[in-house]
Specification:
The protein is an alpha/beta fold. The protein is 24% helix and 25% strand. The longest helix has 13 residues. It binds NADPH dihydro-nicotinamide-adenine-dinucleotide phosphate.
Length: 338
């Protein structure tokens, strides 16, 4: 049972040396009377929040630390190979929290979602049909309360969450502009995902001026994925009664000292509501989301791009790549194909 462990707590920017592929326990058994399952892992998800679990914590985080020597924990798509849970049988497909290893013993299978649409590509359950897709859906619809005619700005717009948030905003009838870190990604926003426009933030001298150019009358909704200078520029460009859905601040995850936004007084001047959210609070809405999203995908209303690394050994480099923008679309790792 090959597995990837955290070798040491990460400080600053993560490196491949912080993780290591090693051999793990070979006999995983379900204790009689428990609701445990043994999973064969097929696809593992690389998600920015995982960086937060790899540090020794002084700052509050919404997920507990991974301790050095332990297997890395993350979302994945898996097949049940042994089960003590009455609703899961051998051969069922699930998504949820698992380990970065070939086989995982999950002590309580109630944390897993059974996959009801196995006709869809299974890897989609790490992204558009899994946690990131639900994040985009609740962030845009429930937190930001998007409605027809809104002007929407999405940062990290070609990524797992951003590409779906932008397309859902288009389906709602919004004007949508995204930012991304390469011309290739900006091109995808416009040609593949149907955004109205997009820009490469790395080529802009002045982000405030860039946003003024794309939103001369201001932004109704900022779907925030990056924080830092982009948040500050967005704050200056919000419209009266705008909404900022605080999804993530990836530009700050590797900083020892958070930068903090300087233009928060815009919230008062423009009467803007800025609200943070964590997707796990919305897991109860997963089935409704899954049906909606499967419908959009089958109807060709949502396009989706993923970036697949082959093999468990590639997982560390794939995860690190999120912080340099190496990934084009949703980053995942294929461990086995059924
Ligand atoms: P992505 O697929 O978007 O990958 C991360 C991307 O972030 C990179 O490709 C890169 O794109 C961009 N990025 C990396 N470093 C920086 C930087 N310093 N400045 C600006 N952009 C940077 O990841 P996800 O879609 O999975 O996640 C997007 C955001 O959503 C993250 O902040 C994440 O933490 C958050 N999130 C929050 C959840 C919640 O419950 N609140 C749940 C899931 C995700 P580029 O080339 O464009 O720079």
């Amino acid at each position: 049972n090959r597995r990837v462990i955290l070798k040491r707590y990460v400080t600053g920017f993560p490196s491949e040396d912080d993780m290591e592929a090693v051999a793990g326990a070979t006999h995983l058994v379900v204790a009689p009377g428990s609701t445990a399952v043994v999973l064969k892992n097929l696809y593992l998800s690389c998600d920015p929040y995982m960086r937060g679990r790899m540090s020794k914590h002084e700052r509050p985080s919404y997920v507990p630390d991974i301790v050095p020597g332990e297997v890395i924990v993350g979302f994945g798509v898996s097949k049940v190979v042994a089960s003590g849970h009455p609703d899961l049988k051998v051969g069922d497909l699930v998504w949820g929290l698992t380990g970065w290893e070939e086989y995982t013993l999950v002590p309580d299978a109630r944390s897993l979602f059974k996959i009801s649409h196995s006709e869809m590509p299974l890897s989609y359950y790490t992204g558009v049909l899994g946690m990131p897709g639900l994040t985009a859906y609740v962030g845009l619809c429930e937190v930001a309360k998007a409605k027809k005619g809104d002007s929407v700005f999405v940062s990290a717009a070609s990524g797992a969450v951003g590409q779906i948030a932008g397309q859902l905003a288009k389906l709602t009838g919004c004007y949508v502009v995204g930012s991304a870190g390469s011309d290739e990604k900006v091109n995808l926003l416009k040609t593949k995902f149907g955004f109205d426009d997009g820009f490469n933030y790395k080529k802009e001298q002045d982000l405030n001026a860039a946003l003024r150019r794309y939103f001369p009358e201001g932004i109704d909704i900022y779907f925030e994925n990056v924080g830092g200078a982009m948040l500050d520029a967005a704050l200056l460009n919000m419209r009266v009664h705008g909404r900022i859905a605080m999804c993530g601040m990836i530009s700050e995850y590797n900083l020892e000292q958070p930068q903090g936004a300087r233009n928060l007084s815009s919230l008062i001047v423009k009467r803007v509501r800025m609200e943070g959210f964590v997707v796990s609070d919305y897991f109860g809405e997963y089935r409704r989301f899954e049906e909606d999203m499967v419908g959009y995908l089958k109807g060709g209303k949502i396009a989706y791009i993923e970036d697949v690394a082959e093999g468990l050994e590639k997982a560390p480099v794939a995860l690190i790549g999120l912080f340099t923008g190496r990934n084009v679309g949703k980053q995942l790792v294929a461990v086995a194909r059924e």
